[in-house]
Amino acid sequence: MRVLAIDTALDACAAAVLDAERRDLLASETLAMTRGHAEALMPLVARVMDAARLEFSDVDRIAVTVGPGSFTGVRVGIAAARGIALAAGKPAIGLTTLAALTAPHVAGGFSGTVVPVIDARHGQVYMQVFGPGGRAVMPPRLASVREAAAAARSSTGPALITGSAAEAVAAEWPSDEPPPTVVTTSAPEIVWVARLGAAAQAERALPRPLYLRPPDARPQDAARIAHR
């Protein structure tokens, strides 16, 4: 199975092509960025496909991160994945950024609890808790930094905190308790988006945005024209 993976949900614009059966990463590229994903994505995808020497019709599915993350970035990635999937007649697979951040630690054999935390600003994080073997202990949620630390501490066994807010959450850890392992990263590795995409059940992983909270932007009521 060949998977084209796309990630624009956080602080990167990334794409990769994975041959899952051979476990071979055919091509990948990641650009660190906080904005400008819409302009960068399709040229980046074209370069990755050229490097893999494949046409869109040669891939079996398209995997994309669906959030939580930047509202604009999530929409850009999902729109691109859906468009490519429709044109190629292949399924599009949606994966959370939280699962993609967790995957390398589960695959690496970490036996405790993995808590991915993404900075949501205003003292809040997007978070989830995964137990041994990658089993989801709680669904994705928006929480305060302190609530995230409490959720990580309530788990059994050692804890690993990863993501852009990992250090902030770890700072809430009591000094008289064994500290967690901290792995700070601003975006998931694109290869893990591809690997999760290859393993996912297509009918249960539709590419729908996962926002967890309403956007910061609000319509300006004073500028609206009254309806008659």
Describe the SSE topology.
Blueprint: E1 2-7, E2 12-19, E3 24-32, H1 37-52, E4 61-65, H2 71-88, E5 92-95, H3 97-107, E6 113-121, E7 124-130, E8 136-144, H4 145-153, E9 159-163, H5 166-170, E10 181-184, H6 190-199
Helix pairs in contact: 1-2, 3-6
Structural notes for this entry:
Helix content is 30%, strand content 29%. A hairpin with a 2-residue loop joins strand 6 and strand 7 (124-130). The mean pLDDT is 93. The chain folds into 2 domains: 2-96 and 187-204, 2-Layer Sandwich (Nucleotidyltransferase, domain 5), CATH 3.30.420.40; 98-184, Nucleotidyltransferase, domain 5. The protein is α/β, with parallel strands linked by helices. It has helices at residues 37-52, 71-88, 97-107, 145-153, 166-170, 190-199, and strands at residues 2-7, 12-19, 24-32, 61-65, 92-95, 113-121, 124-130, 136-144, 159-163, 181-184. Helix 1 (37-52) packs across helix 2 and helix 3 (97-107) crosses helix 6. The strands form 2 sheets. It has a 5-stranded mixed beta sheet, sandwiched between helices.
In brief:
The protein is an alpha/beta fold and 228 residues long. The chain has six helices and ten strands.
List keywords for this structure.
five-stranded mixed β-sheet, alpha/beta, 228 residues, 2 domains, Nucleotidyltransferase, domain 5, single chain
